[in-house]
Amino acid sequence: MGTSWSVQGEYMEACSCTFLCPCIPLNATTPATEDFCKVAMTYAIKQGNFGPVKLDGVTFVVVAQSKAIMTQGDWRMGIIVDSKATPAQVDAIAQIGSGKAGGPLAGFAPLVSDFRGIEQHPITFEMNGHERHVKIGDMIDQAVTGVPSLSAKGECVAIDNTFHPANKRLNLATTLKSIIRCFGIEWNDVNGKRNGHFAPFAWQGEA
Fold this sequence. Notes:
Blueprint: E1 4-18, E2 36-50, E3 53-54, E4 59-67, E5 75-82, H1 87-97, E6 112-121, E7 124-128, E8 131-136, E9 140-146, E10 158-159, E11 170-182, E12 185-189, E13 194-206
Parallel strand pairs: 5-6
Antiparallel strand pairs: 1-2, 1-13, 2-3, 2-4, 4-5, 7-8, 8-9, 9-11, 10-11, 11-12, 11-13
């Protein structure tokens, strides 16, 4: 019998595309604004479990580089799990983050040809209004700010019914900075014109 699991929390990402990333409105079938896509997706679990293993408070980051058209595959990918996670929690995140345990990330697993493994490092993830910031030493430093809505006070402009593992509805954001230096993926941008997103996420599956 398989292991049932579920997690829910907050997600953010910043990628190398200029705002608005063409992958989102065109279902990842059109070229990115560069000859590649370099992205880090942060998942901060508020509550969850993998069978008997509690995952409350565990944060992990999926870092990837793909071709300009993401659905063509040949991805390089690695996962960073917060250093506070126990070995059992790291194993659970490895299965969820790689897609081996099913759930939304399973659809991306066939696209990954070069999995660079899982590392543990201290992760700081902060939320302040419509801003999100993730910091992992000198490996990851990303901050995004949501695009304020003029029609819904206090909310951000959002795009719905998307093809995305975190949530079908994503808040639109621009990056204040996006630095990636890990798993052989290098990106450094602070011009404020690149793409970002954030949203709550809720996944479940059976390994």
